[in-house]
Amino acid sequence: MTREDAFSLLDRLAQGIADMFGVSCETVIHDFSLPSHPVLAIYHGHISNREVGSTMDLTGLQQAVTFEGDVVNLLATTPRGQQVKSSTFSLRGEDYHLALGINYDFTPLAYANRALLDLMRTDVEFRSAVYKSRDTGIGELFQECADRVGKPIREMNKGDRLRIMELLSQHDAFSYRRAVPYVAAQLGVSRYTIYKYLDELGVAKQREEDAGYVSDAD
Asked: What Cα–Cα distance (Å) separates residue 8 from each residue in 4, 17, 40, 51, 124?
């Protein structure tokens, strides 16, 4: 392949990639056979603020390093502060050394990601916050008993839930105010199911004022 053929190939690739990925994607062809690595062609050069003939690299420094092979998916920051993913692919021949650079400005995505993380940020888990002021101690006791069972609540079967109920009963947990609805909410079952568990365990229980529960399947 002659130098002209190599440049024509890289130029077609550069233009096609820039068109495909849009204005956030800069593509550039360098002449690596010269120490200054001048730009031979560039598309969407507004990313790095370079044009044909420039000898500056993506970060605004005078180019002085020659890549012997390809370098892929590097992080760079332009002089204007854009965050860029950069790759450079080298093409050598008998009388030429060209390179195709692909630089994608993901700064808007970084801003969007920070906005999304801020939108998704929470301070306290819902159940913990809602029931903490009501449980007058039942919350810590429940967590202690659940930890002893040693399994995530969502993975517990009926036997595991009964074991938690047994441990709670041993600590007289159901003497706490609103203990039944709290435990029901934590285990993801109805109050009716909690009363059934207490019956199965032979534990004396106290139904609360709000006895308007709805039966559901365990």
From this structure: 6, 14, 11, 18, 59
| pLDDT reading at 67 higher than 60 | yes
Angle (CA) 210-212-215 rounded to 5° is 135
- Placement of tokens 């568990």 in the chain: 197
Cα end-to-end distance, the chain, whole Å? 74
Average pLDDT of the chain?
86
What is the 8-class DSSP label of residue 63?
A: P
Contact 209, 191 (CB under 8 A): no
Full-model pTM: 0.57
d(CA 23, CA 104): 9
Dist. CA 25–CA 98, nearest whole Å: 20
Range of the domain at 39: 3-108
For residue 99, the domain's CATH number is 3.30.450.20
Check if the beta carbon of residue 40 is closer than 8 Å to that of residue 62. Answer: no
What are the tokens at 127? Answer: 């159940």
Does residue 190 lie in a domain region?
A: yes
For 27-66, write each residue's pLDDT tens digit.
999 999 998 999 999 999 999 999 999 999 999 888 766 6
Token pair belonging to 24: 């956030």
